[in-house]
Every structure is written in C-alpha cells, then in structure tokens.
Sequence to fold (118 residues):
Amino acid sequence: NPDRADALSRVLWQPDIASAVQTIVERTGKQPYVVTTDARIYPNTVSYSFMRKQLQEGDRPVLLLFGTGFGIEAETMAKFDYILEPVYGPCDYNHLCVRSAAAIILDRLAGEAWWEKN
Fold:
C-alpha cells in the first residue's frame, strides 16, 4: 500500500521499541504489529506467507525488527506479536548475518511474487 509505505518511511530513528511503536501510532492512528526474526521457533512464530498477507491486506502497520548476531533478549521476544520463521537453506545451519537475513526477509515479504507467475 503506497500510502502506508509513505507514512512509515517518514518515521525517524527512535531510541527504543516503545518509542518506535508510539511514533507509528501517532502517524497512522493504528497500533502496529511488532514482528521480529529469529533462527529458532517460538509459539508465536508465523510464516512469510502469513505476514505477507498481513502487509498486503491487513489494516495495521507492521514494525519489523532485526536483532544482532546475539539476537534479542527472550523477555523482549515474548512481548512481540509475531516472530517470523527462520530462513532455511539446504542444510541445518540457519544463522545469517543481519544484512543477508534482512535482504532475504524483505524480499519474501515485499518482493515480487515470482511463484505466482506462469
């Protein structure tokens, strides 16, 4: 949604997650889903297709967070609405640098739906 993307592109750096959420609420009038990533599965882990559908058809903004190599504290993870499933490859190793993971995840969430083409 171009209007949603434009509104969120104007959000500036925030000192913490709560401030980022508040800024999104102020700018959009809606509570965002807070979503993060991890190499592990959690009770609130969702698929990329689920979150892609929320982005395309949902009426709430999404705040997508990426952690560092050490991840985000478990206590903080428990507060998030959703955690995206790990990025799996051809083997059991599923830890990527944040830049690589972010590129893959953003493509899965907002990139071309190449699998729907003939």
The mean pLDDT is 86.
